[in-house]
């Protein structure tokens, strides 16, 4: 139920029309930073969960 090639191309064309070719690199860089930050925060949460579950089981 994922996106097919046709849908991805259509989305890319719509984004290109809405924002223009000059804004695409800025949008891509911002999106990449957001994804990186999200992954870091998810990793931090998993580490916290592992620490707290480890201390709970040893008590």
Task: Tell me about this structure.
By secondary structure, this protein is mostly helical. 85% of the residues lie in helices and 0% in strands. It has two helices and no strands. It has helices at residues 5-19, 24-58.
List unreliable stretches of 5+ residues: none
According to DSSP, the number of beta strands is 0
Order of helices and strands: HH
Q: What fraction, in percent, of the residue positions are helical?
A: over 70%
Briefly, what is this?
This protein is an all-alpha fold. Helix content is 85%, strand content 0%.
Using brief descriptors, characterize the structure shown.
59 residues, mainly alpha, 0% strand
Topology record:
Blueprint (H helix, E strand, L loop, with lengths): L4 H15 L4 H35 L1
